[in-house]
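hiii so um. not sure if this is the right channel but i have a protein structure encoded as C-alpha cells and i wanna go backwards to a sequence. like what aa goes where. can anyone help
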C-alpha cells in the first residue's frame, strides 16, 4: 500500500513537471508568401483547369521517337547478325556438347552484291 502511494506520487510529480514546460499559445501565425492572395487563386484556377493534369507520362500511348542512327547501317548490321554462324548457340546449350560451326553462310558477299 505504501509502495503504490509512492509510485502514484512520483507519477503525478512527473506529469506536473512535464506540464510546466509546455509551449505558450501565441495565436495563429501569419504565412510569409511572395504571392498575393489573388495571384495564388489565379494559379490554382489555371492548374485545376489544365488538361491531362493527372495523367502519368506514357499512359496515353507511345511517345514520338526520333531515330539518330543511320537506317542503312542498322539494316546492314541486322543482316550480318542474322546470318552469323551459330549466333544462338553457346557451349552450354546442351549437356556435354561442343560448338562446331557448321553454318558458314556469310551475308557479306550478298549484302555487297545487292548494292
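sure thing!! here u go:
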Amino acid at each position: 500500500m505504501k509502495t503504490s502511494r509512492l509510485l502514484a506520487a512520483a507519477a503525478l510529480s512527473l506529469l506536473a513537471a512535464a506540464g510546466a514546460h509546455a509551449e505558450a499559445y501565441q495565436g495563429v501565425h501569419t504565412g510569409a508568401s511572395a504571392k498575393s492572395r489573388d495571384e495564388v487563386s489565379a494559379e490554382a484556377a489555371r492548374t485545376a483547369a489544365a488538361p491531362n493534369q493527372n495523367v502519368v507520362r506514357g499512359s496515353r500511348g507511345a511517345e514520338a521517337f526520333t531515330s539518330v542512327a543511320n537506317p542503312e547501317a542498322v539494316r546492314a548490321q541486322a543482316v550480318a547478325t542474322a546470318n552469323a554462324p551459330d549466333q544462338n548457340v553457346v557451349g552450354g546449350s546442351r549437356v556435354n556438347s561442343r560448338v562446331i560451326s557448321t553454318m558458314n553462310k556469310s551475308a557479306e558477299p550478298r549484302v555487297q552484291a545487292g548494292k
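oh and The chain has a mean pLDDT of 75.
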